[in-house]
Amino acid sequence: MTAQKLLRDLQRLYPPERLLTSAAHLQSYESDALTMFRARAAAVVLPITTAEVVETVRLCNLHAVPFVARGSGTSLSGGSLPVADGIVIALGRLDRILRIDARQRIAVVEPGVRNLDVSLAAAPHGLYYAPDPSSQSICTIGGNIAFNSGGAHCLKYGMTSNHVLAMRVVLADGTLVELGSESQESAGPDLVGLFVGSEGLFGVALEITLRLLPKPELYRTVLAAYNSLQAAGDAVSMVVASGILPGAMEIMDNLAIQAAEAAVHAGYPAEAAGLLIVELEGETLQVEAEFAQLMQVIEESGPYDVRVPKTEEERLLIWKGRKSAFSAVGRISPDYIVQDGVVPRSQLGAALAEIQESGRRHNIRIANVFHAGDGNLHPLIMFDGREPGALERAEVVAGEVIRMCIRRGGSITGEHGVGMEKRAYLPELFSAVDLAVMQRVRHSIDPQELSNPGKMFPGFEAAPAHAAGPHALERAGVISRM
Fold it and tell me: Whole-angstrom distance between the N-terminal and C-terminal Cα of the chain?
C-alpha cells in the first residue's frame, strides 16, 4: 500500500516514459552482472536532472520505501540488485561532464558518466583519469564510487578513493550535503573516503569532482610467458622486491588466454600456463632506466618467452586482450561466477595453486585473470547451468576461494564489493565489534535502511548461496533464480 502511494507521487514527478512499471520494462532491471540472482522492483525511474533524484529519494523516505541507485548494471556482486517492491533510480541519463579544469586538473561529472569518457574529455588537455576497470568503456563513475573500483593501473595510482576530491550527495532522508573540496589538501574527517566504497548504503552521489593526472610521456610494456601459473605469480614478488613500481602488473592463465585470443587475437603465446603483463609509465628517462632493470628481473624469473611490443598499436592490443578477458570467457563457458578476493603479494603463487586444486577437486574449470600488483584475484569459475549440480559445485569453489583469501591474510573483495554475494563472509573477516561500529555509522545516516538495503551486511537469516548452501536467498524470499 505504501508503495502505491509513492507511485502516485512519482507519477506527478515523472512523465510516463521515464516511470517504468510494466513487467516487460522491469525485467531489464531485475539483476546486475551477477545474473544468477534476480528481484523485481515496483518501479524504475529515469531521472534527467539531479533535482529529480533528490525529490525521488525524499519521497522514498516519506513513504518508507527502499530504493537502489543503478548505473550501467555492471556490478559483479549483486550490489545493484533491486529490492522487491522498492524503487530503482537508474542514473544512466545523468551523463554530463559538467566541467574540465585543466589548470586545477579536475573534472566535475554526473554519476552516469562512463569511466572512459572522462579520460577522452580530458585528453585534449594532456590529462586523463587513472582508475581503469576492465569495464571502463561501459561502467559509470557513480558505480565506481559505490564499489571503490580499481583496475589494471591501481598498483601505482590507487583506487577510486584516491581520485575523488569532492561530491554533492543526497543522503537517504533527502538531505543534500557537500563532501570534500576541489583542493587536494583538506582538513577534518575524510567524509569522501567514508562514502566511496559504501556500496550505496548512505545515499546517491549527484556531482563528483575527480582528480586528473598528466598523461605519461612514455609507456614500456613487457609480456612474459611461463610454464606454470605459480611461476608467473612468483615473478610478481620478484618485480616488487626489486624496488620497481610498475603502472600495472596483470596475470592471465591458459584458459583466460584462450578466451581472449578467440575474441581479440592479441597474439598471446597460446600454450602459456601463465602470462604476466608488466607496464612502466612516466617520464622518459626514468622509464627507460627502470625498463632495463625490469627486463633483468623478468629474465631471472624463468619465463620461456618474453615479448616487447614495438608499436603503440601492439601495446594497446595486449591491453585489449586483457580487458576483454571477462566477457571473452563467455566464448568457452555458458555460465561463470567472477570472484574478487585479495591475498598478500607474497602469497600469490601459493594462492593460485590452491585455486587450481579447488577446481580439480570439484571438477570445475577456472580461468584466472587478476591484478597481480596488489594481489587482487579474479578467478572466473566456469559451469554450465543446464547441467544438474554444476551451479552448486561452482558456488562451493567460490566459497573456498574467499575463505582461502581470508586464511592467507587477505580480503573478501578488492573492487567488486560485498553486495549480496559475499555478505556471509563479513563476520569471518571482521569482529563483532567491527561490524557493530559499521552498522552504527550506517544507521546514523540511514536509520530506516532505505538506501540499497540488504547489501554488504549479513541479514535475512540467509547467506549467499555458495556460503549457506544452494538457493539460500531464494528460500528466504529475497530473490528469485533464473
Answer: 28
Strand order in the sheet with 274-282: 305-307, 218-226, 274-282, 248-253, 365-371, 379-383, 335-338
178-182, 192-196, 305-309, 475-479: the lowest-pLDDT one: 475-479
Name the grid cell of 121.
574529455
Question: Domains of the chain, with CATH numbers?
Answer: 1-215 (3.30.465.10), 216-410 (3.40.462.10)
Cα 39 versus chain centre, distance:
21
Taking alpha carbons only, the member of 71, 3, 83, 69 closest to residue 37 is 83
Cell of 441: 555509522
* 478 has a pLDDT exceeding 50: no
* Higher pLDDT among residues 23 and 326, named by residue: 23
Torsion angles phi and psi, residue 431, rounded to 5: -75, 165
pLDDT of residue 375: 86
Q: How do residues 334-364 score in pLDDT, each as one tens digit?
A: 888 888 999 998 888 889 889 989 999 999 9
Q: How many CB atoms lie within 10 A of CB 182?
A: 13
Which of the listed ranges 107-121, 251-265, 456-470 does the model predict with the highest average pLDDT?
A: 107-121
Residue 74 near residue 147 (C-beta atoms within 8 A): no
For residue 336, the model assigns a pLDDT of: 86
Q: What is the pLDDT of residue 432?
A: 93
CA atoms within 13 A on the CB side of 288: 4
Average pLDDT, the chain: 90
